[in-house]
Amino acid sequence: MIESKIGSADNNNDNGQPLHYGSPYQLRGDFLRLYDNCMTYHAPGRSPYSNPQAGEVAGRVLAAVDRQLKLLLTSVPVMAALEFANGLRHWLRCRHCHKWRAAPYVHFAPLRVAAAAPPSRGGAGGGCGGGGGGCGFRCEQLPGRGCGQPCDQCGGAQVCSCAAAGQPR
Fold first, then answer.
1. Has residue 123 got a pLDDT over 50?
2. 113 versus 97: which is more confidently predicted?
3. Is 68 helix (H, G, I), strand (E, B) or coil?
4. Are 31 and 65 spatial neighbours (Cβ–Cβ below 8 Å)?
5. For residue 119, which of 28, 56, 129, 141 sits 20 to 30 Å off, Cα-Cα?
6. What is the distance in angstroms between the CA of the first residue and the CA of the last residue of the chain?
7. In terms of pLDDT, which residue wins out, 3 or 103?
8. Exposure string over 123-133, b if 16+ CB within 10 A, otherwise e
9. pTM score, two decimals?
10. What is the structure's pLDDT at 84?
11. Which helix (DSSP H) or strand (DSSP E) does residue 105 occupy?
12. How far apart are CA 17 and CA 160, in angstroms?
C-alpha cells in the first residue's frame, strides 16, 4: 500500500511542497520501469522466488495505466492545467554556483524529486558527484545549461546578485 507520493511532504522533500509528474508520459515511464523490473526479476531461471503470474499481473497493471492515461490525455481541463503549469517559470537554485534557473514544469518536477531524494552512498565523494539525487540541483541537469551561464533572474555572469536574497523575485 502506498502511504505517500514520491516527493510528498511525508517524504521530507525540500520546503515540504507536494511534487508532481511534469507530464502523463513521465508517469507512464515509471509504470513501464516497474513492468520491466518485474519481467526481469521473474524471468524463468532468474530467481528461486520468481512467480510466473507476476508478469501477467504487471502487464494488466500497465494496460490499466494506458487506458486511464488515454482518458486523461483526451481531458481538456487536465491538459489545459498541464499547459498552464508548463507555461509558468519554476525556479531552481544551483548548489554549485548558487545561480537561479528558470525551468519548465516538465523539467522542474523530476529535478525537485531527484534533489529531495537521499544521496547515494556509492563513491568516494559522499554520493554527490554523479548528478544523482539528494545533493541538490546543478545547472547541468537542465538541457543545454551550465554554471558558466548568467543567472536567469539577475543576469549576473560570475556572481549572482540575487543569491544573497535566497529567492528569485
1. no
2. 97
3. helix
4. yes
5. 28
6. 40
7. 103
8. eeeebbeeebb
9. 0.47
10. 82
11. helix 105-116
12. 25
Q: Which three cell numbers stand for residue 72?
A: 486523461
Residue with cell 509528474: 21
Indicate the burial class of 137 (C-beta count within 10 angstroms; 0-12, 13-18, 19 or more).
buried
**Residue among 152, 118, 150, 142 nearest 132 (CA):** 118
- Rounded Cα gap, residues 41 and 55, in angstroms: 9
> pLDDT tens across 15-72, in order?
444 456 767 777 888 899 899 999 888 888 888 888 888 989 999 999 999 998 888 7
Give the integer Cα–Cα distance in Å for 53 and 23. Answer: 31
pLDDT confidence band for 85 (50 / 70 / 90): confident
